[in-house]
């Protein structure tokens, strides 16, 4: 923080800028905070992501210099992506979000196009942003493939393979057309297998798998084409998930007998390309900025004053002041993994009860622990560490691997560096590069993953059947959730969805989480203005939203924004694959075939667009480019999106109508 920086706790006197963007329609509110002076509590994240009373998004990206946050210690990207799910919970990584984040850096004049390093809770990622509006590519690190687990989605059981992309995923292949599935309710999963929750991908293989789609060619440049829908932890169903697509690409390739290749992953919001090499996973896809503007101070105050639903907080926070309000101290609450959707899509809730496995399920599927617990980024850098670390809702069985919620002693820990820290560290220059890869970093993860490469493949017995590609497939409309949990289909007495499938009468449930307390509404303290970070009480539990508040004002519309609102059309229609004959219980059989560990059936696929990146990953010149990018001043006067305030000043307050700046529409402080 510079000398002229406001003292912690000083109210921010101006409007807070924001931008809105999406990657394949996985959308985000972007809040620039280069000095790390803003705290955005979960309830404000929820309010901002509210699609009716807020700006609306699946998640939030806070743009902060890596040197200004405890999580960034040891990370060497100039910028840190502080990602939040729409329900206010923190996640380790977001593949679509980091592309949008990079686009924002460039459009806001904070970075130059080209290669840049962006730090996340899952390590520092290399990102290539071409000049113009072309797709952005991210080196996401290796997919760490774990073991089989079963999940209940829309009343059906699916077997899947757990994968860590820094955050946890369960990839479930199925013969049922994914567009027919009901993803309006949170999946029921085994909390012992996923103590911090899980993102669930349901997948059809459409082309390129000789065993299941014989004779159906993939689009040019791809080895496989798949379609997926996803239910995201903390966000509900989204129209795309970048980390999920990476997980799907890795598992789908292995199911087809390959460990490397390129996969077209079609999602409701478009298509992303996944390239799996022996060392890493590349995610390529669009990133679009839609608008920029300023949050209304009145709206912020109203958002902070709304009542909250008392529940176990999804992300225990340390003492901090907050954006929009200051709350009273509360004793630490028992942590319950957060994996529910935000309130405008599905209720936040305690860990769901896990129904009995389907009759055809293996008697005792292995707990879904990644093969190398010490290498899984979401284990080494758990998303919700807090001192003291509470026990998971259900401890893993004795034979299970150590709980992923157990932080590594060497992992970067917010417990050590954040929660008890009254203010961001006074670091004014970039830290020198560590001699060894920092724990939890991408480099460390990759090195560990290489060492355990042969242990990636899960012991799953599966069957793939093709299904007919469908043009213009769509997902059911998102349900509009009401404040009343019951009105959202939530049974507070049972602590699970009202229409959750009954547990099997033929055997006990494998793991049943405690139903949890019935949510109750309680007020929070009166709203206070936006404040800078300072020693402050813990953040209260995530709140529900209230209607009728003033919202953040809209600013400019980006010329590059895709505002058609139309369903994404797959650009190149592929030949129709033979549609399988659905058999009773088929959803249980669709999963991933066993692949011999360590079998590599193809060379890494290098396409023209990715060749440069693959070279960049290893070329020393990348470091020079990254350094240059970090050290040089961004071009002035060309940015189209709101820039953050200069160091030491409150968030940017552009003059109304200034060239290149969004017009100030909302009320001023
Ligand atoms: N949509 C993101 C993933 C966001 C985080 C996820 N919901 C989690 O909690 O792990 C992506 O594009 O990867």
Question: What this model shows, in words?
Answer:
- It holds the Pfam family DAP_epimerase.
- This protein has a 17-stranded mixed β-sheet that branches.
- The longest helix has 14 residues, at 242-255.
- It is an alpha+beta fold.
- It has a domain at 16-139 and 289-330 and 416-431 and 517-558: Diaminopimelate Epimerase, Chain A, domain 1, CATH 3.10.310.
- Helix content is 13%, strand content 19%.
- The protein has helices at residues 42-49, 95-107, 242-255, 297-305, 377-380, 414-417, 442-451, 586-589, 608-618, 620-631, and strands spanning 16-23, 26-32, 59-65, 79-85, 114-120, 123-129, 136-139, 144-153, 156-164, 168-173, 199-207, 224-232, 236-238, 261-267, 270-276, 281-285, 288-295, 308-310, 490-491, 496-497, 520-522.
- Residues 309-322, 324-639 and 644-669 have low confidence and may be disordered.
- It contains ten helices and 21 strands.
List the helices and strands and how they pair.
Layout: E1 16-23, E2 26-32, H1 42-49, E3 59-65, E4 79-85, H2 95-107, E5 114-120, E6 123-129, E7 136-139, E8 144-153, E9 156-164, E10 168-173, E11 199-207, E12 224-232, E13 236-238, H3 242-255, E14 261-267, E15 270-276, E16 281-285, E17 288-295, H4 297-305, E18 308-310, H5 377-380, H6 414-417, H7 442-451, E19 490-491, E20 496-497, E21 520-522, H8 586-589, H9 608-618, H10 620-631
Parallel strand pairs: 2-3, 4-5, 10-11, 12-14
Antiparallel strand pairs: 1-2, 1-17, 3-4, 5-6, 6-7, 7-16, 8-9, 9-10, 11-12, 12-13, 14-15, 15-16, 18-21, 19-20
The structure holds the ligand N[C@@H](CCC[C@H](N)C(=O)O)C(=O)O.
């Amino acid at each position: 923080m510079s000398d002229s920086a406001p003292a912690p706790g000083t109210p921010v006197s101006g409007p807070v800028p924001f931008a809105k963007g999406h990657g394949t329609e996985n959308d985000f509110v972007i809040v620039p905070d280069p000095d790390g002076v803003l705290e955005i509590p979960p309830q404000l994240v929820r309010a901002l992501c509210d699609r009716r009373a807020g700006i609306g998004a699946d998640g939030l990206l806070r743009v902060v210099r890596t040197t200004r946050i405890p999580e960034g210690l040891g990370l060497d990207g100039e910028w840190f992506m502080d990602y939040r799910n729409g329900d206010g919970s923190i996640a380790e990584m977001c593949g679509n979000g980091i592309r949008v984040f990079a686009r924002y850096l460039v459009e806001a004049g904070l970075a130059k196009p080209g290669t840049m390093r962006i730090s996340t809770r899952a390590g520092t990622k290399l990102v290539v942003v071409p000049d113009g509006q072309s797709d952005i590519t991210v080196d996401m690190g290796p997919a760490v493939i774990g073991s089989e687990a079963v999940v209940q989605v829309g009343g059906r059981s699916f077997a899947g393979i757990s994968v860590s992309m820094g955050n946890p995923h369960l990839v479930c292949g199925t013969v049922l057309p994914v567009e027919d599935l009901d993803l309006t309710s949170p999946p029921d999963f085994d909390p012992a297998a996923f103590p911090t929750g899980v993102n669930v991908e349901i997948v059809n293989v459409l082309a390129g798998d000789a065993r299941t789609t014989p004779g159906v060619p993939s689009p040019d440049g791809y080895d496989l084409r798949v379609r997926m829908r996803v239910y995201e932890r903390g966000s509900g169903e989204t129209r795309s998930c970048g980390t999920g697509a990476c997980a799907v690409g890795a598992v789908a390739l292995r199911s087809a007998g390959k460990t490397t290749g390129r996969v077209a992953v079609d999602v409701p919001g478009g298509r992303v390309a996944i390239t799996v090499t022996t060392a890493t996973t590349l995610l390529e896809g669009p990133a679009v900025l839609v608008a920029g503007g300023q949050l209304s101070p009145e709206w912020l105050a109203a958002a902070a004053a709304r009542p909250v639903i008392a529940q176990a907080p999804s992300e225990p926070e340390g003492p901090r002041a907050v954006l929009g309000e200051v709350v009273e101290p509360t004793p630490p609450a028992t942590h319950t993994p957060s994996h529910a959707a935000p309130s405008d899509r599905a209720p936040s809730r305690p860990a769901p009860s896990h129904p009995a496995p389907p009759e055809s399920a293996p008697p005792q599927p292995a707990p879904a622990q990644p093969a190398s617990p010490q290498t899984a980024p979401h284990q080494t850098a758990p998303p919700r560490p807090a001192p003291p670390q509470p026990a998971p809702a259900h401890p893993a069985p004795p034979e299970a691997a150590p709980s992923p919620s157990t932080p590594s002693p060497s992992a970067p820990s917010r417990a050590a560096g954040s929660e008890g820290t009254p203010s961001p560290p006074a670091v004014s220059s970039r830290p020198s590069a560590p001699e060894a890869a920092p724990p939890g970093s991408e480099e460390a993860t990759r090195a560990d993953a290489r060492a355990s490469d042969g242990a990636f493949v899960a012991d799953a017995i599966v069957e793939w059947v093709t299904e007919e590609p469908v043009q213009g497939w769509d997902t059911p409309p998102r349900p509009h959730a009401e404040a009343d949990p019951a009105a959202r289909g939530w049974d507070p007495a049972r602590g699970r969805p009202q229409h959750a499938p009954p547990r099997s009468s033929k055997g006990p449930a494998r793991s049943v989480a405690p139903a949890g307390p019935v949510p109750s509404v309680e007020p929070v303290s009166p709203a206070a203005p936006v404040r800078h970070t300072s020693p402050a009480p813990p953040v209260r539990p995530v709140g529900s939203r209230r209607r009728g508040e003033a919202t953040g004002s809209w600013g400019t519309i980006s010329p590059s924004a895709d505002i058609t609102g139309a369903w994404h059309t797959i650009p190149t229609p592929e030949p129709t694959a033979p549609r399988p004959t659905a058999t009773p219980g088929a959803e249980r059989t669709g999963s991933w075939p066993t692949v011999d560990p360590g079998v590599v059936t193809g060379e890494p696929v290098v396409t023209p667009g990715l060749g440069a990146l693959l070279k960049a990953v290893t070329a020393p010149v990348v470091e020079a480019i990254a350094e240059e990018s970090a050290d040089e001043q961004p071009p002035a006067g060309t940015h189209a999106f709101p820039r953050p305030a200069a160091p030491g000043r409150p968030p940017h307050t552009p003059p109304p109508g200034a060239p290149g700046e969004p017009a100030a529409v909302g009320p001023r402080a």
